[in-house]
UniProtKB/TrEMBL annotation:
Positions of region (Disordered): 124-143
Protein name, UniProt field: Flagella synthesis protein FlgN
Function of the molecule: Required for the efficient initiation of filament assembly.
Record flagged with keyword Calcium: no
Organism: Ferrovum myxofaciens
Listed InterPro entries: FlgN-like (IPR007809), FlgN-like_sf (IPR036679)
């Protein structure tokens, strides 16, 4: 591998490490939002994360197309990439678990609300109690 090829390969590796560092920042931000319960900022964050994940895929593909790492070059940088990749994978898995917990919690809360709505006492125009009929009333999500 020529010295210019080595420089190109190392530059590609550096760019990939930089993008992975940015990705970890987004994952950490996502985890903070999930832990705090702030869900609205998760939508634009997910879009950023998706774009950066695609960039990482492209950078990894490009670096792999350049061939094997130069012998004796960048082993520390490759170890850095591997360490950061493992950390990002762990953080992403944890975030997925937090999302699943929040989803289950929201589903349970919705089920409780739906059960309460089904048991709600309704009154007719004469003030007498009416037995609720399935599908009567306003759906919970309507505005």
């Amino acid at each position: 591998m020529s010295s210019s090829s080595i420089s190109v390969w190392e530059a590609a590796l550096d760019e990939e490490i930089s993008a992975l560092t940015q990705f970890q920042v987004l994952l950490d931000e996502e985890q903070g939002l999930l832990m705090s319960g702030e869900t609205l900022p998760l939508i634009p964050l997910a879009e950023k994360k998706s774009r950066l994940a695609q960039r990482l895929i492209d950078l990894t593909t490009y670096r792999r197309e350049l061939g094997n790492p130069p012998v004796g070059h960048s082993s520390d940088r490759l170890n850095d990439l591997l360490t950061q990749t493992q950390k990002a994978e762990t953080t992403n898995r944890t975030n997925g678990e937090l999302i699943q917990i929040r989803l289950r919690h929201n589903q349970q809360a919705l089920k409780i609300l739906q059960q309460a709505a089904q048991k709600a006492t309704l009154y007719g125009p004469d003030g007498q109690t009416l037995a609720p009929t399935p599908g009567s009333g306003r759906p919970l999500a309507s505005g």
